[in-house]
From TrEMBL:
CDD domains: SGNH_plant_lipase_like. Belongs to the 'GDSL' lipolytic enzyme family. This is GDSL lipase-like. It comes from Coffea arabica (Arabian coffee). PANTHER family: GDSL ESTERASE_LIPASE 1-RELATED (PTHR45966:SF1), GDSL-LIKE LIPASE/ACYLHYDROLASE (PTHR45966).
Amino acid sequence: MTKEFRIKLNLANSCIQLSLAAVLVVLASLTFPSDCFHHDDHHPEITAALFVFGDSLIDPGNNNYINTSTPFQANFPPYGESFFKYPSGRFCDGRVIPDFIAEYAKLPFIPPYLQIGYQYQLAYGSNFASAGAGALVETFPGFVINLKQQLWYFNEAEKQLRSNLGKTGAERILSNSVYFFSIGGNDYTTDSRTSGIYKSFTPEDYVAMVVGNITAAVEEIYKKGGRKFGVLNLPPLGCIPVYRAADLAAGGTGECNGEITALVKLHNVLLSKKLEHLQKQLKGFRYSYFDIFAVVDEIFDNPSKYGFKEVKSGCCGSGPFRGADSCGGKRGIKEYELCDNPQDYFSFDSGHPTQAANQLFAKLIWAGPANITGPYNLKSLFQISFVT
């Protein structure tokens, strides 16, 4: 990790202790690429909606409404207790990243699409994410809402918007909305890598399929009128508690899973290149690429600087590193441990961040410097308006 990155990220982290307004003042003093802000494009009277696609990192509870099994659900205590005081279905002690983004954008909570169905106007957006989902339909089939199905739901929502608002109103919402993606990690898990499809390809070709499905989804939304996209790369998934525990069980010392880390790095490089290509190819295409891998890597190197006391073990679970998927006692293992202060931990359970970590991510996604979130941050994307 470069010294420049650490300096800028540490500066951004110090802002997290301030109000959001103060964060923006400090970040305004940093050097951004000249094309990061298009002030002449801004029309603040138009409100942008937020549409979300992804997996458990950003699922607000869609899996509460599908026929699945408990490993893919978080609708039982102690999930949700730090904020909602009840299990909302989020794989977290509280809020996930889109909850904070909606707050910063002055939008209401964006609910699970399956909760609201067709009864909601959708003018503020919707969240289609599903815990366990992958970019490939072969990832946990029958248990999750994969990316292809999420896009089908979005198409249904688009039809409903046109019915509710008319052609002009719907097109204004669609062109000014931000489409937020965080998906792909489940395609590289141990379960996915033991499947037949993974074994049929080289790692490079497999990664190309995953990334290709993500960028194909972006292009499909672009054809529907979407112009503004927020995309997360993948964090160092090989270092989450479940894989540290697996390494220990295999006779290691609790280190990160090297095979997963290598795939994640391939994924991130290719995803970045593909988004750069889309920006050159598609007229009006704007995007924000959040380097969550680098941010998490920096947090793991310097946890105390970011308010964390523990980054290797989960807050909730059992066994070494609390890496067993037992949080809540509903997934085959009834006994589990729960820490006293989730905000001190980076991971809440065996594989998901705490609310404290999600808030840190969200603030950097919203207003982080260009070496972390670029070429636009999400705040600047929300400010850009396309008049139809």
